[in-house]
Amino acid sequence: MKIIFYNETLMSGGIEKCIELLTNYLYPQHEIEIIYIDEKKLDPNIVSLLSKNAKVHKLNEGEQVEGDICIWCRLYMDYSKLKQQIKVKKNFLWVHSIPQEKNNYVLQNPDFLNTVDKIICVSDTIKQLLPAGKEKATVIHNFLPNNIHELANSPIAQEDVFNSPNSLHFITVSRLSTGKGFERVLNLVNMLKKHHIPFEYLVIGKGRAKEQEIRNMFNNIDEVKFLGYKENPYPYIKKADYLVQLSDFETWGNVITESKYLGTPVITTSYATAYEQVEDNVNGIIINLNETNYEPYLSRIIHGLHSYKKNLHNFTYKNEIEVWNALITPHNKPQNSSSQ
Questions:
Q1: How far apart are the C-alpha atoms of 63 and 35, rounded to whole Å?
Q2: I need a labelling partner for 302 at 20 to 30 A (CA). Which of 47, 86, 96, 233 fits?
Q3: pLDDT by residue (tens digit) across 156-186?
Q4: Domains and CATH numbers, the chain
C-alpha cells in the first residue's frame, strides 16, 4: 500500500517528529511518500531524517501523485486544488493544531471536514473542539521512539551537560518561535535569580525569524545556554530535574510524554490539553497561563521535585500503532496497545 503524507513545509517541529515516528512503524510494510509545497521554511536536517523511510519531495504546480491513502498533516490553504493533484482512495486528516487557530482554514471549514474519510486527533480536547466531523474522528496519541531508553543513555558532549550537581537543572526542547512561551521562561529564570536559587537551564531547538530575538532575551543570563538543534535530545531530558514547556497552547506535547517516560517532571502552562498529560502537583506543575508572578510556584519547584520524580516511577506509556494499522487496513482490528 502507498501512503502519502502531506505537510505544507518541513521544519523542525512536533508535526515533523510525529511523521518520522509513524513512518518508522509503517515502513517497509508500506511505501511512503512525503510531499510539501513551501521551500522557504525547509529544514535540511528534517528532510534527511524523513528520507530514511520515505521519498521526500516538493509538489510542483500541475504535478500529480497517486497513492492509496493521503494523510494530511499541516494544511492552511484551500484543499480542493491540492486534491486535484493528490489522487488517492482515502483521505485522512491528522489534526495537530487548534481548530480555532487564526487562519486555520481547514479546521474551521465543516464542508472540508465532511469530505475526509477519517480524522485523527492527537488529544481528546482537540476532538471536542472540532466544528464538524466528530463522528469520524479517532483519538490517537503520538508515539515515543521505540528505542528511547537506548537513545537517552547515549553520550553527550561535556560542554553541553549540566555542570553543577548542587543546582536545579531545567531544560526546554522547543522550536524557537512565537507562541512557545519564552517570555514566560524569562519570568521563571528571573524569579530564580531574584531568590538566589542556583540553577542551570538548557534550551534545545532552533527557529527562523524569531530565533535571534529569543536568544537576545537571555543575553545577560549566564545560567541559560542555547544548544541549537539536537537530533537526540533524550540524554539531556533524562539528566534534567524539570522539563519546562510554557507554550500558549499545545495539541499534544510530544516532549512532555517523552520527559515523563524518562522520569523527568514537567512544568507547563494551563492550556486545555495540559491536563491530559500532566497531573498538577503529582508528576509536575501546571502554571496558570495568564500568570506573570511565579513566586507562588517557587516552593513547589524546589520542594516537590523528589515527590514528582517518585510518582513518575509508575508512569506507563501505551503504543497505539495498532489503532493506526486498523485505520489503514480496516480488516486488522486493533489489539490491546503494547506498553513500554
A1: 11
A2: 233
A3: 988 888 999 999 999 999 999 999 999 999 9
A4: 2-144+318-339 (3.40.50.2000), 148-314 (3.40.50.2000)
